[in-house]
Amino acid sequence: MALAGVGFQVSEGLIYAVIGPNGAGKTTLFNNLCGFYRPSAGSIRFDGHELCGLPTHRIAALGIARTFQNLQLFFNMTVIENVMVGCHLRAKTGLLTAALRLPGVRREERRLREWASEALELCDLTDRAGQPVGSLPYGLMKRVEIARALAARPRLLLLDEPAAGLNDTETGALRELIARIRATGVTILLVEHHMPLVMSVSDRLLVLDYGSVLAEGTPAEIQADPRVVAAYLGGAVQYAV
Ligand SMILES: Nc1ncnc2c1ncn2[C@@H]1O[C@H](COP(=O)(O)OP(=O)(O)OP(=O)(O)O)[C@@H](O)[C@H]1O
Ligand SMILES: [Mg+2]
């Protein structure tokens, strides 16, 4: 079983990390939260709404957005066009109205551009807006994914390994960005293997192993837990919290 008997609760406004070895079930957990997978049993609640059984777009409309472990971008579209895709939930114009070029479409397009620009600014991508995503270095592509998720104005943001493939400078900038996003009032669920980042940025952590909860607690508690050290962290290293 990919996940079994996993239970946890995230308070609004927290940065909550989910860690654990490869194959522990972290991405599967995200896929269940977003409605990509439907759990065979159990319940996932967000702000009083039951999410199990809802289609992905309904879950997104409740205020949950995500990034992907493997980049899911339109590489031949520009940065801002990719981010505008993230705004469509907030847009009023349907596909038909847009296809028929009915009045209001251009106004709506301007609004989408404004929303996307705000997300780009928060992610320090303003000067890249017009470039094709495929021409960016990898670290910036990962930022475009975050900007696209933010363009939907989520209340809960799921980040799946945002630091994977980043160098030290980019990881430091990511840490700063995650803190900045939280400061705007967004709750963050963070899946990440980069322990210095996780331990310094998170309020609490959930440790998964073989699809089950191994531990839950603050960064200091998790680092002192012998089961977590044995299953995942290894000995000897202490991360700043
Ligand atoms: N659609 C699927 N069908 C069958 N098995 C799956 C599916 N998706 C994931 N799994 C399996 O479920 C387990 C958990 O996978 P998952 O991708 O959630 O791990 P993870 O914790 O995100 O690992 P990583 O750190 O490597 O990203 C793995 O054994 C994986 O092979
Ligand atoms: Mg994963």
UniProtKB/TrEMBL annotation:
Database matches in CDD domains: ABC_Mj1267_LivG_branched
Domain of life: Bacteria
Provenance organism: Candidatus Competibacter phosphatis
Domain ABC transporter per the UniProt entry, residue ranges: 1-235
Keyword ATP-binding: yes
Coiled coil region boundaries: none
SUPFAM superfamilies: P-loop containing nucleoside triphosphate hydrolases
Lineage: Bacteria, Pseudomonadati, Pseudomonadota, Gammaproteobacteria, Candidatus Competibacteraceae
Full protein name: ABC transporter ATP-binding protein
Alphabetical UniProt keywords: ATP-binding, Nucleotide-binding, Transport
Record GO terms (molecular function): ATP binding
Transmembrane segments: none
UniProt keyword Nucleotide-binding, yes or no: yes
